[in-house]
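Key result, reporting period 2: structure in, sequence out.
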């Protein structure tokens, strides 16, 4: 409930009906598969909070649509090998294993993924670090058989989003958060990607089993983006963080891939997943593949 200070602050209340209408105006299509990244606070004061945002998205998608989001795992020990020994020992001994039914979505990605995870009928993929949650007609297909290794590549929920000709929605969220671009990192045919090996506990037959996982490095980046820092910094509209994913997304928009508009008070963007994936693959191959620009030496 808003208090008196909020109502006097000039913050605009926005409800489910308006959100759904503006999502449709942005280009969200009934029956579509949409992956959402959201900063709910950017929308204004949402009447009904995160629940109303989910309902508005489902309204725009209709009964045949599917809503998905990156969940990950809030308690994952992804970088544990670099922790102090005492911390490693404590987690090794006592970290409850990943259980897709109960593990919280990563808090740093905002409130909406956890709201989707706990929505009636929601489904979640089995991979702890790259896990996806989904609601709707194709949710079971989206999350099924998520590869444990190479979890952003072939057969992943991200690959299925592209296969379904779905859409990627940045709902007030920074363009640097577009998880689909990790799929491009995984699938582009470029050698010498940065890779990681990490360990996490899984629930197997009622017991915690620590498993080793292998994947591209999604924390530090699969490619040496520092080599193209000048180009990233020169991208029109780039934020202060000068994130390579934001640069790719902004350059895609400039190339006519995707649309921008406002939903509530939030500046938002909607991309066709297949076209964005193809653009990102080409961008990465040009800069880091065997055919990289001659100016790179």
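The corresponding designed sequence is given below.
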């Amino acid at each position: 409930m808003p208090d008196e200070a909020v109502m006097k602050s000039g913050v605009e209340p926005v409800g489910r009906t308006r959100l759904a209408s503006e999502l449709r105006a942005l280009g969200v299509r009934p029956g579509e598969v949409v992956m959402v990244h959201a900063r709910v606070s950017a929308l204004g004061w949402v009447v009904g909070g995160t629940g109303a945002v989910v309902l508005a998205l489902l309204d725009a998608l209709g009964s045949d649509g599917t809503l998905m989001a990156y969940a990950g795992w809030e308690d994952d020990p992804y970088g544990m090998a670099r922790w102090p020994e005492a911390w490693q020992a404590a987690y090794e001994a006592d970290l409850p294993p990943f259980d897709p039914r109960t593990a919280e979505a990563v808090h740093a990605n905002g409130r909406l993924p956890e709201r989707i995870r706990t929505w009636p009928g929601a489904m979640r993929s089995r991979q702890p670090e790259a896990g996806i949650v989904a609601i709707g007609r194709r949710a079971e297909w989206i999350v099924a058989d998520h590869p444990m290794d190479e979890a952003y590549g072939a057969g992943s929920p991200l690959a299925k989003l592209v296969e379904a000709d779905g859409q990627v929605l940045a709902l007030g969220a920074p363009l640097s958060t577009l998880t689909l671009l990790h799929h491009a990192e995984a699938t582009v045919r470029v050698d010498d990607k940065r890779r990681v090996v990490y360990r996490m506990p899984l629930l197997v037959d009622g017991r915690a089993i620590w498993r080793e996982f292998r994947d591209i490095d999604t924390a530090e980046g699969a490619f040496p983006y520092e080599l193209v820092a000048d180009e990233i910094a020169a991208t029109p509209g780039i934020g202060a963080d000068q994130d390579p994913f934001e640069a790719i997304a902004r350059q895609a928009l400039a190339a006519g891939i995707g649309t921008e508009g406002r939903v509530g008070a939030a500046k938002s963007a909607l991309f066709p997943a297949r076209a964005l994936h193809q653009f990102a693959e080409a961008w990465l191959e040009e800069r880091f593949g065997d055919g990289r620009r001659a100016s790179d030496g």
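The longest strand covers residues 195-204. The chain has a mean pLDDT of 94. This case is discussed further under Risks and Mitigation.
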